[in-house]
Amino acid sequence: MNTNTTAERTAALVAAYYESWRGGIGSFDEERVRDLLAPDLVFDGPIAGRRTGAEPFLVGLRRFVSTIDAFHPLQEIRSDAEASALYDCDLPGGRVRFAEFLRTRGERIQAITLVYDAGEFQRRGG
Predict the structure, then answer these.
(1) CA distances (Å), origin 8, targets 5, 22, 33, 116
(2) Which whole-number Å values give the CA distances from 110 to 3, 20, 31, 75, 86, in the listed order?
(3) Residue 63, domain CATH
(4) How many structural domains does the chain have?
(5) What string of pLDDT tens digits covers the 126 residues of the chain?
(6) What is the distance of C-alpha 109 from the center of its chain?
(7) Cα(61)–Cα(45) distance, rounded to whole angstroms?
(8) DSSP letters for 10-64
(9) Which domain holds residue 63?
(10) Which helix (H) or strand (E) holds 99?
(11) Between vectors from CA 29 to CA 27 and to CA 34, what angle results, nearest 5°?
């Protein structure tokens, strides 16, 4: 990644992260995602809770990506070392909304906080 500013690096990291899985399991690029994540990534989400480590996160992401039929980005906001995204995903039982907050450092994503209605996600096939 050859970018000039922290904001540009963050934008490139976040774009690559979503591009790596937004097409569902058929186009999921686990190696690419692994390259984007800090080994000691901190993830926080309603079902998984707080977890540390890129590898446990990748297990959960693979599981999530296998349930989605479509990804619909709604809004993204980025600053120097942080980004947030609001998006909908189509699951077998319908659409669910997600908000995701990412923090970067250098060339890696350091932390991800994911917010969504876990009950709705599970009812719709997640």
Answers:
(1) 5, 21, 18, 27
(2) 18, 17, 17, 21, 19
(3) 3.10.450.50
(4) 1
(5) 455 688 888 999 999 999 999 999 998 999 999 999 999 999 999 999 999 999 999 999 999 999 999 999 999 999 899 999 999 999 999 999 999 999 999 899 999 999 999 999 999 998
(6) 10
(7) 11
(8) HHHHHHHHHHTTTT-GGG--HHHHHHHEEEEEEEEETTTEEEE-HHHHHHHHHHH
(9) 6-123
(10) strand 94-105
(11) 160
Tell me the residue type at 20: S
| CA distance readout (Å), 70 to 12, 24, 125 | 22, 7, 13
* pTM reported for the whole predicted model: 0.91
Structure tokens at 99: 């908000």
